[in-house]
Amino acid sequence: MKNRSKRYKELLKKKINNKKLSLKEILDLVKENSNAKLEESIDVSLRINLKQSKGGDFNLRTTVKLPNGSGKKEKIAVLCEPDKISEAKNSGADIFGSDDLIEKIASGKFNFTKLICTPGMMGKIGKHGKVLGPKGLMPNPKLGTVSNDVKKAVQDLKTGLVEIRNDKDGNLASTIGRKTYATEKLEANFKFFIDSIKKEKPDTIKGEFIKNIFITSTMGISYKVGAK
Length: 228
Description:
Elements lengths: L5 H8 L9 H10 L8 E8 L12 E5 L10 E4 L5 H6 L4 E3 L1 H8 L7 E4 L4 H4 L3 H4 L17 H9 L2 E5 L5 E8 L4 H16 L11 E8 L5 E2 L4
Helix pairs in contact: 2-8
């Protein structure tokens, strides 16, 4: 059995069972329990129904632009043509380059959390997919990381564009802010996030699309939304 810290055991004593809590009450409790020394994120995890009436299992991969941002600090690199380097620099990107950046990627010497690529450079970066793919760094047009509008792509990632992807069991998770966020901002982000997921439900899936929802913090305990 996994050993729990003294702090975590104290949090478990505060868990409220057999009572239906409002979204605001849950968020207030999660924030109250976010007492680790680091600035904890407030996270949503849920499980979706993958079973389609026809064909194979459904897979969800998309992006959601949270209205109040995620609070997550991304280190963004831009791979572009030489004549776009100035634009990338002025866009707020942390790292930018052309063939020189590809050389760094090829050598495994890169330290960024997101990679934006212009369409014209995709042919050059494609062969490095085996390195970038497993790290979740391969640029993808559907995720807003392949674009000629470098400034917009960088700003979207800097201001709350989060990537959503389910695992084989239908579980997916995302941050909706930080413990320092006002509860009202977290509520708005949560509702926008859930509505965005619901809109992704394909017609080939019958019944409820979202099976359950939990809210927690990085080092805290989880609360089920809608639990009775």
